[in-house]
Amino acid sequence: MTYPLIDVHELARCFDVRRRVEGRRRRSRESVVAVHDLTFSVEGGEMVGYIGPNGAGKSTTIKMLTGILVPTSGRVRVAGLDPSRDRVELARRIGVVFGQRSTLWWDLPLRDSYDLLQKMYRIEPARYRENLDRFVDLLDLGAQLDTPVRQLSLGQRMRGDITAALLHDPEVLYLDEPTIGLDVVSKGRLREFLRALNAERGTTLLLTTHDLQDIEALCDRVIVIDHGTSVYDGSLAGLHAQGGSTRTLVVDLVDEAPAIEVPGATVRRVEGPRQWLSFPADASAAPVVSAVAAAYDVADLSIQEPDIEDVIRELYSRGA
Amino acid sequence: MRGAGMLHVAVATRAFRRYSTYRAATLAGIFTNSVFGIIYSFAYLALWDANPTAGGYDAQDAVTYVWLGQALLMTIALWGGGATDDLAERIRTGDVAIDLYRPVGIVGWYLASDLGRAAYHLLTRGVGPTLIGLVVFDIALPRSSVHALAFAASLVLAVVVSFAIRFLVASTAFWLLDQSGVKVMSGAFAIFFSGMMLPLVLFPGWLGTLARALPWASYVQVPADIWLGTHSGTGLLAALGFQVAWAVVLLAVCQGVLRVATRKVVVQGG
């Protein structure tokens, strides 16, 4: 019987927190639930977005998946291993990238950091050189190889970190806010690289982010976590349907007019000759557009795609 | 296993290089150690003038002991510091999570780094003041090549024992977020019970017995006695065995504490 690459079953993690209580000298102990009743599985080769508000339990989950935190109860298996028990063995098969921390050594040039990693992961020399050449080329790091990490820009460091996480051919790559603080061009390049990585090598990606464009660009599947448990698990399109999201038709009329009335759409806003009409995200725009064009003198039209942030916000508020 | 050995050598080499960039600090340190060596030497000479066989040492042994202490001070990082300060800082900031994601044990990794640092400090802060001491005072050299070799082994063991204690101090940051209070306290214990301030052979009665049984005796007293030729034959092996025993016990405790820390404690930050 084959198991999914990542298998999480009724996972829970509590933390003991001490709180100062008014009028009492001793601080009282309290158990805070970070994650509870979490069940999901990921097959090899998937690209999954793992999203949720701050404090929802994303990092706690990742820490349990990588074995640096022991679950309070429930079951985790990654590549058939129990992460907290087989942490060192598992570490050879996964890669981890943090937007806000670096696995590189700040006082060493990139090349020396990679040499240390080669020894650490015992990467076969030929394979190491092949991977290094490939990633340095794809991520355009050639000019930075001999620069100490502390002198790299954020974007360069991030690319350096991604290379570091991939040199040992991990089956799973966890990315925690990989595009945080990057400019638009760098973000775009990074996403393109990750897509190619998944396509060429079948590397499984689990991505936590607050930048929903990362998700839209990369992930076929989204798991939304809130208050420590999964509130949605499915496709991005399904997320739109569930959140009741809408597309918007922006109409510029030749003259100012009262609110447009056409079937299948409702006016949200009127500002001079410009009006905003919303209609369901899964409906076609064509009938709305032709109805508007038939009844009014239209100067210009444009369509805004649904804002996934609104959808997520809607999901969070339901969970609360 | 060979691969892991190479990694640890690389880690130690890197630590050696990192410390070697602080040249001015090194020179200032050698100067300070030498000044303290001279002051202590005159104080000890006055003491042994009053009691020429105190603790079973003669005046030459006593002065030699002073300079050995100065040479060991930074090599074993008696006050704390070294690789374990890096660890404490990484626990505080949460970067220790990165260390935990790696396919190598944390204790071995930081030990390798600390041995690299110790090698640098031995060659500079150890050898430097010793040369000054050799010029200014009549310092005894090891009695035989066996004693010299045993001293070298004892020195490495002293660093390992000291590392383990400093590692435990740094680990308190998992619970306290900051190691500095514990570090000061631990430094005070180390300076008293290592024999750095006063040879443990001068401690009277039960205090002496206790002090010579505690791990801190591995820091200065045991290596100094080996250098001075106090032990020979099985006595030499027993002295080294004492250090090995503490090293093994304390490193095991380090592993245990690390396991508890990852089980019980929040690794800082998201």
Automatic annotation (TrEMBL), chain A:
Recorded topology in the membrane: Peripheral membrane protein
Gene3D superfamilies hit by this protein: P-loop containing nucleotide triphosphate hydrolases
InterPro entries according to UniProt: AAA+_ATPase (IPR003593), ABC_transporter-like_ATP-bd (IPR003439), ABC_transporter_ATP-binding (IPR050763), P-loop_NTPase (IPR027417)
Example of a GO MF term: ATP binding
Pfam families in the cross-refs: ABC_tran
Keywords for the protein's UniProt record, in alphabetical order: Antibiotic resistance, ATP-binding, Nucleotide-binding, Transport
Residue ranges occupied by any ABC transporter domain in the UniProt entry: 12-252
Compartments (UniProt record): Cell membrane
UniProt xrefs under SUPFAM superfamilies: P-loop containing nucleoside triphosphate hydrolases
PANTHER family assigned: ABC TRANSPORTER ATP-BINDING PROTEIN, ABC-TRANSPORT PROTEIN, ATP-BINDING COMPONENT
Protein name: ABC transporter ATP-binding protein
Organism: Nocardioides flavus (ex Wang et al. 2016)
Lineage: Bacteria, Bacillati, Actinomycetota, Actinomycetes, Propionibacteriales
Automatic annotation (TrEMBL), chain B:
One matching Pfam family: ABC2_membrane_6
Keywords, ordered alphabetically: Membrane, Transmembrane, Transmembrane helix
Keyword Membrane among record annotations: yes
Source organism superkingdom: Bacteria
Key word Transmembrane helix present: yes
Signal peptide feature range: none
Transmembrane segments: 21-42, 62-82, 122-142, 148-177, 189-214, 234-254
Protein name (record): ABC transporter permease
